[in-house]
Structures are given as C-alpha cells and as structure tokens.
Amino acid sequence: MDLRLPSKVLEHIFSFVDSNEDRNSVSLVCKSWYETERRTRKKIFVRNCYAVTPEAVARRFPEMRSLTLKGKPHFADYNLVPDGWGGYAWPWIEALAEKSPSLEELRLKRMVVTDECLEKIAASFKEFKALVLTSCEGFSTDGLAAIAVACSNLRELELRECIVEDLGGDWLSYFPETLTSLVSLDFSCLDSAVKLSDLERLVSRSPNLKSLKLNRAVSLEALGSLLRLAPQLVELGTGSFSDKLDQEAVSKLSQAFSELKQLKSLSGLWDVHPEYIPLLYSVCPRLTSLNLSYATVQMPDLVELLSRCSNLQKLWVMDLIEDKGLEAVASSCKELRELRVFPSGAEDLDETNVAMTEQGLVSVSEVCPNLESVLYFCVQFTNEALVTIARNRPNLKCFRLCVMEPFSPDHKTQKPLDEGFKAIVEGCKDLQRLSVSGLLTDKAFQYIGTHGKKIRMLSIAFAGESDLMLHHLLSGCESLNKLEIRDCPFGDTALLENAAKLETMRSLWMSSCFVSFGACKLLSQKMPKLNVEVIDEHPPETRPDSSPVERIYIYRTLAGPRLDMPEFVWTIHKNLEIGVSNLAIE
Amino acid sequence: MSEFLAAEHDYIGLSEFPTMEATKPTSDNKTKTTDNNNNNDDDVLNFKATELRLGLPGSESPERVDQRLCSLKSSCPVSGAKRVFSDAINGSTKWVFSTDSSAVEDIKPDVPVKEKKSSASAAAPASKAQVVGWPPIRSFRKNTMASSQKQGGGGDNNNNNSETEGEAKSGPEPCLYVKVSMEGAPYLRKIDLKTYKSYVELSSALEEMFSCFTIGQFGSHGGCGRDGLNESRLTDLLRGSEYVVTYEDKDSDWMLVGDVPWEMFICSCKKLRIMKSSEAIGLAPRVMEKCRSRN
Asked: How far apart are CA B226 and CA A120, in angstroms?
C-alpha cells in the first residue's frame, strides 16, 4: 500500500505553510517533500547574498516570485565596512532576468544597486510589482525613472534610508498616466523636490494607495492637498513640518488630518514646529506606530502629543523626550511593544542638556506589559536599572542598549555592568537580539553564554578582557546566528577552538580586535565551507602572521569564495601568494 | 579551562599583557584585577584607568602614557611612518589597536565623565576625534540631523533647548561629514570637520589616517612648536611627502587646503582629496584669484 500522499495533495497542504522557517523544516523531511516544497515556494529569503549563488536559488525555486536579499554586514551601517567591499545586486538581477523572468518582488538591504540594475529590472520582469531598497546605494534618480516608466503593474516602490545620487525630482513624472496600481510609495530619503502637480495626479489615480512617505522637500501646504486626495492612507510619512501657514491653511490641514480615518502609522515630521503639533491630535488615538525620531520637539510638546496615543505599539523618538516624558509615555501608551530612543545629536557628551537617564527606560518597563523590543541610547546606566528592567519585562525579545561613552561603568557604584546584563539574559528567556555596552568584563560574557540560549544576534563593542569572552559566547550561545564585535581584546585562541561553531552561524564580524592573520589563514584552511575575509588596507606580506588584522568577516557559504573581492579584502583563495600558514595554534 | 589559558600565545609580542594571563594582576595603573574568579567587591575600579582621553600628536599630555601602548609601539613591526604617536600622547585607552591605521578615528572621544565643564572644556572638544561608527548611528540619521540643525538655526524655536536665539554657541553641534579620498588609497574615509578647530588638528588627523600611503615622511611630530604653526605651514608639512591636501568647495572648485581662514574653510568644504603635489600645481593660481575676489 503506497502511503505517500500524491504530490498534488502535498502541494495543497504546503500552500498553507507560510513561514520560510517552517518551509525549510518541511524540505528536510524527505526527498519528495523537498521536491514538492521547492516547486511551490514563492517567497525566498537569502540573508547573505554571498552564501549561495543566484543560479542555485533560481534553479531550486522555479516558482520564485519574491526575493529578499541582504548584502553587507550590519556594521556597514556605521561606516565600518569600506566602500567597495561588495554586496552587488547586479549578478543577482542578471541571473534572475534570465532564469526567473516572472519575478514580481525584489527586496534588497545593504546592497549596491546601480542604475543599470534598475534598468535591467524594468526591462526584464514583465510582472514586476514591488521594489523595496533599504540602506542601499549606488543608483541615481535616473534609475528610479526607469522603474517608474516601465513597470506598468508597480505596486510598491520604497526607498528606505538609501543613498541616492539625486539628479532632480523629474523621476516621479515618469509614472505613466495608466499606472493606477500603486499601493506604497516611499521616497523619503531623496533630497530634490518632485513636481507637486505630478505627485497629486499620481496620488489621485491610485485608489489603492495605502502608504505614502514623502521627502522633506514636500511642504506642509502641499501635504494638505495630498491628504485630501488620499484619505484612505494607512501609513503616512510627512515632509517638512515647518512652513508658515496662514490660519485658513492651518484649519484646512487640520481638517485633512481628521479625515484620515485609517491612519495607523505616522513618520517624517522633520523640522516640526511646535505650533503645528496639534494638527496631529486627531489621528493620535488610532496610531499604532509613530516615528518622531527626526522631530526635534521638546518634552512638553512630546508629552502632549503622546498622551493622546493610547493605542501606540511602536514609538521611535529622540532623547529629547527625557525621563519625564518617558514616564508620561508609559502611563499613556500601555500597548507599547517597541521603543527606540535615539540621541539628539549631542556629540559632545560633556554638554548634554538632555535629562534622560536609565530611569526613563525603567519607567516604561514597569508599566508597559507588552514591551518586547528596546533600542536605547543614553549617557549612563546602572546595574540596578538593568536588574529592574529584567524583572519587570521577562518577555523582552530584543534589547539593545547603547551607553554612548565606551567603558562606562555603573554610574552609581562604578562597577562593571556585568551583573545588570546577567539579570537581562537570565530573566528574559526569549531574548533573541542583544546589544551590550558600558564597562563589561569577561564575566558578563560568561553569563550571556550560560543563559542566552535563544540569542540569535549579538552586538558587542569596547568590552571584555580576554579570549574567554569570545569563548563563552561561541561555546554557550546555542542559537547564535550573527555575532558582531568591535574593539574587544580577544584573539586567536577562542576563535580557533570554536571554529566548528562558525559553520552553524550566518556570520561573524570582528574589527579592531586581536585576531592574527595567521589564525585567519588557519581557520580558512580548516573550514572550507566558510569564507574568511580579512578586510585590511595592508598587504599581508608586509607583516608577520602574528600581527592582528583590522577587520574580519566570516560567513558560511555554499558558493565558495566570491569573485568580486576588492583589493583590500584578503583571503587564502584570492591571494595565493599568502600561502599556507604553518603556525600551530593550540 | 586551564590548558586554554596555558596555550595563550603572546602574538603581539608584549612582555606582559594582562588579558592573556587571567590570574595576574594588570599593569600598574590599574587596581582592578582581571581574575575572573575573584569576586572581590572591595576593588574599586580605578576610575582614572578607564577614563578616556585623547590627545593628538603634539598636544600636551598629563601623567598617563599607557605602558602597554609604548611597548606595543616598539614591538609592533608595522611600518614606522604610520605609527607616529608622539611621546606625549594621552594614551590611556584601554585597548590599543596597534596596527589599525585608523587609529586616530578609533581613539575614544575625550569625555572625562567626572570632570564636567572644567576649564578644559575648551580643550576637550578641540582635541576630540571621532571614533568611527560610534555611537552606532546610521549615516543617514547623522546627515539628516546635521542638516536639520543647520536649517533650524535661524531663530525658530524648533530646535534643541540648548539653542536659543542669538546664542553664539549652541549646545549640540551639527556634524559636518566630508569624504576624504587619497590618490592610490583603496578606500575613502569620512571625517567630521566640526571636531577639528584648526588646520593643524586636521592635518594631524589626516596624517594618521593616510600616512601609510605616503612615500615621504612628515616632519618631526614631538612638540616642536606645533602650536605656533599657522595655516600656511600645512602645505609645507605635506610638501615633504609629495602630497597636498585639496578640497572641493561650494562652487565645486578644487582648492588647496590652508589658504583661507579655518571658519571659512569648514563652511565651504564639501570634500577633501589628498593628491600628489605635481597634480595640484594648477590649483594655486585659481586659489589666488578666489582669495582676491573674496577680499
């Protein structure tokens, strides 16, 4: 009796399996499940563009409709990865144009995208619907024009914090009059003003438009007319919020805002003038997401605004909110799930005028039961506060604390913050993402290794004392997937002892540590499934194997060493002259 | 665990590196032990030891020269031109990255936590260098905040409470990131011009960043009247190394750095480029013309 289900039945069942993690599990059950699953998977996520070749992906998933790709390592966001390192979108787009012409959606993060790439997309994918570029660079507004003019079924065009060569605002005018399918448009990172009349016409012929994020050049007055054309918006990113408006214009704008009955998310708000904040009051009660991180608004005005946001789940704000403001937020926004507090630009920490300390976060943790994701920049912290936060919020999933001065101890006791972070990892058993800061000894990492069993991503800077630190992490954190470390004093031993661990992780980044060139070579030899990239401006022959390297990026890959490495990336594969190390490190 | 420790390999070549021998006490200027098993709560962290200080080569320095820094310097085999820290460097940075050519950028900001607005406050911002990528804020955010603070400075009260109308020095200052490229260098740097107060500081920083590429040596660095240098000596310094520093100004002209007053320079500088003297010769006449037309 054949107990196997017919593949048609399997396909039908698998169509209900959405998450790729589940689909990955499904594909491991047996060959026929693998085959059925791969033929039906439409959304593909490749979280490291060098882990696998585009051809392999296209071959495995013939029905691919949506591809999400990530390029550079996370620390590229902070200028730690030199320009020219890699992360090029072109090989992917070229391969997909040939092998997966039915591709509809492309989501790229931290990749180099050129105008050529955009033109190729426009020319090759007839059903193309969505382009979302996050932290990408390398293209100009001409490339956008190519997309606008050719993609007749375009639904989403989102540029999130990209670095774009801005040749003017004409690109928007290339959307044809026949394009009526737009659902989401985000050009908030561009500088140049687009032609308002073209934008208005685009908006008015897009009845499905749900998300509109304008750039700074769009004035407050223009915003009014746009809102009147799109009262159905669910997400709005305003432009500059600081023109001088006359009374009539203000009341019209107020009216327009109050018509936004579906609005759930608000962002933009650059240069917010305090007197215009009341314009937002009408939408506050419905908001679930509010990004004030570019709004240089003072605490009293922030509190006025936030006290009306009883349904807020996600709040991004600057430290201008101060402890007092966060206390107020805690009492008004009980549904809060995610809080991010950014520094307001006080580079000179001596002269910070902002009264925000650890107390603000403690208040929020006390009162908001659903708080699970925190990113908090501040000047000082204490173990006591961390212990309290952990006790209040064992449900934390993401905890990123950035005490801005490196090596800052507990400002009350002058002790390291080891015990505080111990409480965090011990108490928050579901913690998946952790960034530590402040003065930390190896003990802190012993605690993290012992308790942080679910941690997938860990970011460390200016911490620890020795190799033990790294050893604790690599041997203890079972779920560790991404580890990024800068300016920590550990070296080769821990890395080599835990080499096998690296194949179970997506990537490891280390910069300004004490890992030697010899160790990198050795690791590279021992572990053929890893790409061990040394990013260093000095040719390795000019110094001994024992000298530390500047930066290392290690990632697992099925694709072998990549072919697009620049001069300053050294590997034993590319740079055969380096030779094989006979340095024996225990 | 013990074999793990015993196998420590002092690859940096230091005679005594506390982190490699976890049971030994650290060097003299720290009282904190690094013994992991020691839960001695009486050990008060020697706060001074963890205090971050910075001085650019040539600047005055109090007591602290980190012993490890000195020994690292001497034992490190990396090219000497690059490692030119003056003897007077304030080096009590805890972790020294001896071969990191971006050392100036990696040196921690001069923010003495205890010593708030002392008379050193004038000196503190002046000698502060930027640690690359710290605090971890995306460039997009940094640039956006910088330009919004610039825009908002015109008397509107929509800025930080530290900026009031008419106040000459506002609190948080905007960043002024410019790219610095150099002929032959594999990649660019970005620096915040606002962290330097004079051409002298800028030139020191550039020296540190790019000296690995220069063929000639710069002049001596140990306090030889650095303070007395005026702007026009900048090109003298660099001429010896066959390179000059140029910048692209607001009008997209390339000018020699050092000819206009510092304040004017940072307002008009968009990009910096270190190029070979031979290629920069053509710049000089235009610079003169510009200066004339400005004056």
From this structure: 56
Restricting to A residues 37-56, those with a Cβ less than 8 Å away from any Cβ of B are: none
Paired sense of beta strands A482-486 and A433-435, if any = unpaired
Q: How far apart are CA A494 and CA B216, in angstroms?
A: 40
Q: How many CA atoms lie within 13 A of A123 on its CB side?
A: 11
Give the span between the Cα atoms of A133 and A137, in whole angstroms. 9
| Exposed / middle / buried, residue A281 (Cβ in 10 Å: 0-12, 13-18, 19+) | middle
Amino acid identity, position A539: P
Give the separation between CA B182 and CA B186, rounded to whole angstroms: 8
First to last CA, chain A: 57
- Contact call for residues A451 and A419 (beta carbons, < 8 A): no
In terms of CA atoms, which chain B residue is nearest residue A489? B95
Cβ-contact A537, B186 below 8 angstroms? yes
Residues of A within 8 A of B142 (CB-CB) are: 345
Least Cα separation, residue A367 to chain B (angstroms): 28
The CA angle A7-A8-A12, to the nearest 5 degrees, is 110
pLDDT in tens, A238-263: 999 888 889 999 999 999 999 999 99
- CB pair distance less than 8 Å for A467 and B121: no
Q: Which chain B residues have a beta carbon less than 8 Å from that of A408?
A: 113
pLDDT in tens, B195-235: 888 888 888 888 777 765 543 333 333 333 333 334 444 44
Question: Predicted ipTM?
Answer: 0.86
Beta-carbon contacts of A15 under 8 Å, excluding residues fewer than 6 positions away, are A40
Best residue in B19, B159, B162 for a mutation probing chain A (most A CBs within 10 Å): B19
Q: Which residue has better confidence, B111 or A576?
A: A576
How many whole angstroms separate alpha carbon A496 and alpha carbon A501?
A: 10
Compute the distance between CA of residue A494 and CA of residue A488 in angstroms, rounded to an integer.
13
Q: How far is the CA of A325 from the CAs of A106, A305, A344, A517, in angstroms?
A: 40, 11, 15, 49
Q: To 10 degrees, the CA torsion angle through A107, A110, A116, A117?
A: -20
Least Cα distance to B101 among B253, B222, B205, B231 occurs for B205
* Other beta carbons less than 10 A from residue A464's beta carbon: 26
Sign of the alpha-carbon dihedral angle for A542, A547, A548, A552: positive
Q: Which residue has the higher pLDDT, A352 or B122?
A: A352
